[in-house]
Amino acid sequence: MTTYITTPIYYVNAQPHLGHAYTTIVADTYSRFMRLCGERVRLQTGTDEHGDKIAEAAECEGVSPREYVDRISGMFRKTWPLLEVEPDHFIRTTDPEHISTVQAILQRVHDQGDIYFDKYTGLYCKGCERFLTEKELVDGLCPDHQQAPLEISEQNYFFRMSRYQQQLIDHIKENPEFITPERYRNEVLSFLSEPLEDLCISRPTSRLTWGIPLPFDENFVTYVWFDALINYLTGIGYPEGPDFEDFWGAAEHVIAKDILKPHAIYWPTMLLAMGVPLYQRLHVHGYWNVDETKMSKSIGNVVRPEELVEEYGVDTLRYFTLREMSFGLDASFSSDGIITRKNSDLANDLGNLFSRSLAMLTKYVDATVPPHTVDDESDVLLRKTAASMLVSYRQHMANFEFHRGLRAVWELISQANKYIVVNEPWALAKDPEKASRLGSVLYNLAETLRLLTLVLRPVMPGTSAKMAAGLGLVEDDQSISNLETGGVWGGIPVGTRLQSIESLFPRMDQKKKQPVAAVNQQKKSNKKSSAKVNGEGALAQAENIITFDQVQKLELRVAEIVSAERIKKSDRLLKLTVMAPEERIIVAGIAESYSPEEVVGQQVIIVANLQPVKLMGVVSQGMVLAAKTEVNGESRLVLTTVSTPVPPGSGVA
Length: 653
Ligand code: MSP
Fold this sequence. Notes:
Homodimer. Keywords: Aminoacyl-tRNA synthetase, ATP-binding, Cytoplasm, Ligase, Metal-binding, Nucleotide-binding, Protein biosynthesis, RNA-binding, tRNA-binding, Zinc. By secondary structure, the protein is an alpha/beta fold. The protein folds into three domains: about 1-285, 3-Layer(aba) Sandwich (Rossmann fold), CATH 3.40.50; about 325-485, Isoleucyl-tRNA Synthetase, Domain 1 (Orthogonal Bundle); about 545-640, CATH 2.40.50.140. It has a six-stranded parallel sheet with strand order 3-2-1-12-13-7, sandwiched between helices. A hairpin with a 2-residue loop joins strand 14 (about 290) and strand 15. The radius of gyration is 29 Å and the shape is elongated. 5'-O-[(L-methionyl)-sulphamoyl]adenosine binds near residues 23, 258 and 287.
């Protein structure tokens, strides 16, 4: 089976930014996922190099369009490897093969009577490079570019798009997956409920020369969208190339909502006119804003992929964007958000699970995967979670619900962290009679890590490769390179030698988190803030007003205390092991109010995203909230809790 996945070809009037990066990461992740499913995949991206906008940008720089497009197209091409994106083909609309095929198609569609010459007056938006209908305007402006469109009246060539309207409606209705998510399908159907106008597909050379000349009239060049959309065919050798045969039947396009209409209306009607089967699926995602604001040069908040990679690392960027955006809806990027995810999901949950498990395998069984011989309930639960993770992961990844696929993966990570707490390998290691149980527990952990290496491969290829190296697995081993064979429990061979590797995700300096930094600032200045809850000092009491946004930055969770002990040489501190839902250690200043025995089993509320701090030699990963009161003239702390037990890790809003 084959898969052909494309990104839009990006205009070369601007440099790559986070929006371009996201679409391209999505397409790359999907292509890697499909490869993992055993498919033959072709991933295509490229640059859209003709049209008004490009001609203008070149003029502004005082260079020829050719010189200009070569430079910017090169920037896009160089960006993708930085994001670990590996396209099979990078197409440029200035490629000679593309130009000649576009001309051949125009000639054919013209000859069959689907292109005609007419006079037209319309409202043209340069930003969109298309005529807008009155209905599309908001207060007389293009909603995407906040510019009034120009009224242009000229003679042009038109494509009889209206002729194919009914056929397109029928196709969309018969194929619910043709445009996804559903909200965009509905949007297109609603648009199609009104009569379609024909599409103007030429520009007079008196107004624009930077375009593909119409083969049947030298006084005109081709409208940039008619030229650009055809890249999806020319890039795979349409009409006669063998790759066209192999891949077109499996074509899937990824775009954002801004170019829905050209992809869901112009493109399918063009294909119908050309007698080429329609693409399989169109996947439409929302827009990335930055700090809740539209990304724009004038605001100065355009985020560049290379800077993000430099600052956070490529896998963190890939993971964050895929996990944070619900595919189809808008999302907001902030350094705060990406650092939080890096520290909590990647460093804490995944990184800790990996390093703890590897450390225990090294310490207790000489860095060699032991056999699994003794089964118990916790093993069954872990295997079940792994099995349901695989089902849900496959389904969501195939449906472009990456955030959901990753959520399922993190459920397994959290279950594995609990598995360690429940089984206490360090205790088993002290009792020689429990050696086979210890081996079984460590086997299950190694196997869980192998499965994680497998499913994280499309999302974080570099991290997955490091994990594979740590587990002593070879890159092209079926157990980590194929979901079919690798998705079966028990794939890690007994006797595999593990290797030591560097930490997967070093935690990031939280000082970069602006709003939290502000809260920290407040904490420092507030001497009254309690050092009684944990040694580092509690969150400042509300002497100063903080905004709702600042409150939202606090990650409060319900945590269950699973064990507690006194910290030597400290009267005040208890070392708590809590599940929230993953295991973490919190050092709390409650020893004068509670004995260790009293707190075990209690559900408390913690601040989960506090910067870790070392207290009396123990790293504390959070803060337990407690009320301060006085009993018989003595100050006392009373732990906060919930009125009914809830699953550990539940958020507190
Ligand atoms: N050249 C046309 C596409 C022709 S495809 C046959 C074009 N180019 S573009 O450079 O403007 O790219 C638009 C695409 O870039 C969006 O559809 C989306 O994939 C990506 N993004 C640009 N800004 C974005 C955000 N702020 N957020 C998410 N993606 C966005 O249109």
